[in-house]
Design a protein that fits this description.
single chain; 217 residues; alpha/beta; five-stranded parallel sheet; four-stranded antiparallel sheet; 8 helices
Amino acid sequence: MRVLVVEDERVLADAIATGLRREALAVDVAYDGAGALERAQVNEYDVIVLDRDLPRVHGDDVCKQLVAQRYPARIIMLTAAGELDDRVEGLSIGADDYLAKPFAFAELIARVRALGRRAAAPLPPVLERAGIALDPARREVTRDAHPVELTRKEFAVLEVLLSADGAVVSSEQLLEKAWDEHIDPFTNVVRVTMMTLRKKLGDPPVIETVPGVGYRL
């Protein structure tokens, strides 16, 4: 899942991004509303964590523009304005969820993952295929009921493959969903991660390489 964090308090923005990355999510950061709109035109996000009181372009206007453009990401407003009227106003302009500061990070993670499931075709809470089971909320993977220890990136790649439900996923799509905007598109990081993931999942192999197209589980 790919997330955009939009927050003008840089320490808080970077802390949120770091926490989300620890949950095996790909995260980009924008420190003002204009930067958020620029990144949204370049990258396709599943969820946008959006502060309301932003410089350059107000968070409400960012939300309105993305909704008007039918941008596919789900939006959670993260703001100090947490009164009932504030929440109603935020939801009425197109936000999908609203979380007031201060907040428990575990709740933010749960809400981001819930919105991510709604951003595309509905997915079950535990993804299963070919004896592989992945629980995003618990960060657990098993094969035939045996635990499999994965790095954050291996976990993210496996989640993308399982979410595709048997469809082929290209290297470009994996870079888009499992890494952030700082990744070099010409790197061999996908191939290397796929090699280590296959090794950890064990035999018989469950990830197929489709020459010239991508990978399929």
